[in-house]
Amino acid sequence: MAIEPAFSESLNCIFYPDGNDREVWRYNLPKGCFAGYTSKHKIIGHIGLNGFVKNKAEVKSFGKLMHWDRQTGNKKLSPPALWVTDHYACLIDIPNRKVDVILKTETSKITKYCVRNYPEPRLRAQVAAPTIKYRPAMGFVTEDNIHHLILSEPEQKLDVTLPKEQPGQKTSVAFTATENDIFFLIATFNQTGIPIRKRFSDYDEYANKELHAQTGLYKLNQNGTLDMVNHYEWTRPESKWKQFLEPEPKSKPFVTAFSPPPYDWVWRKYSDYISDYYYENSIPISAIFGIIKESRPINTPFNLLISLAIMGFVLWHALPRRTSWAKLIFWVILAGLLNLAGLLIYLALNHTPAIKCPACGKKRGLEMDNCSQCGCPLPVPQRKPTDLIMTN
What's the rounded Cα separation, in Å, for the pair 125 and 234? Predict the structure, then answer.
């Protein structure tokens, strides 16, 4: 089972080599290497891309860790752990202090990997012997869409280049290796006019569109190209389920145009990552994202235009009344982020009257002694003679 390392700053591996004292090897994610310690906290050494070294300064980083897999599914590869970084794939045998670099990519980063072995070691006693002998294999996909295959029984390394995805297309690739052949299963989905990685929040907008899919089984020949073995395709017709839903109010695009623009930004970025557990069982999170979903701007250009207009009004209104540039910039940005709500907050907290400056003739606020335009102080009222009224 592959483990994502992003949850932790370090990974610990514990060993009892040859019945001796316990060893703890800690992988440091920022530094990209292992450091070994005894149970008495004495340093054993370091393991990096260049193998086992005593001196910390000599160790070479594996790179940014993407995945690691303890069960490689191949008796010839176990017990070493499969260690996959952005440019390297290694088999690390910590008890024997060995590092075997099985794949190195200079320019393109590794994006995906998989391990194939039929059946898995833990299931061999529970299933019947397969009629076809499968070869243990590992596959790595890089950014340039090259599939790097590493097979055993016998040892073999192959690089297979597949066509890149076209706009509006989603491709899924799987492979397996038998005793004599290597097969690829390629499934392609096309949906006209719809970005394939459309965010989940707009699912209702395209779920009823026509979908065309095709699946092909290919065999890798001696020239490194794929020969089609079998192929089928189908088209899902346009769904009519949406006609039974209650239509949204026609005024919603205009009402939501006054919503804060960050509502739409948050929904676009995080809607796909809301797990069902939190969305259905956590009342605060469900309520917050429910409000964002219902009130997020539908007409984004119109919403941004209104926010810009509000920022311009706040700048025009606050410029003669400013007490500092920092405060002025704060109110302009706040009004732009909150849209109509930001404008109302600004007007409620900045109702200082403005007068005409006697020196420059421009508007100025009364919170500062000096005019923000020309710097002249407020005129001092002239004293009038005091009238004394005497009464008997």
Answer: 39
Q: Quickly state the pLDDT bin for 106 (edges 50, 70, 90).
A: confident
Q: Which of 69, 57, 54 is nearest to 102 (CA)?
A: 69
CB 308 within 8 A of CB 270: no
Lowest mean pLDDT among 77-86, 145-154, 213-222, 291-300: 77-86
Query: Would you kindly state where each structural domain of the chain is located, as residue ranges?
Result: 252-350
Give the helix, strand, coil percentages of the chain, each rounded to 5: 25, 30, 40
- pTM to 2 decimals? 0.53
Whether 53 and 46 have beta carbons less than 8 Å apart is answered as yes
> Is residue 320 within 8 Å of 364, Cβ to Cβ?
yes
177-211 burial by CB neighbour count: b if 16+ within 10 A, else e?
beeeebebebebbbbeebeeeeeebeeeeeeeeeb
Helices in the chain by DSSP H: which ranges?
203-206, 252-255, 261-270, 276-281, 283-295, 300-318, 325-338, 340-349
Residue 283 burial (CB < 10 Å; 0-12/13-18/19+)? exposed
Tokens of 60: 């070479």
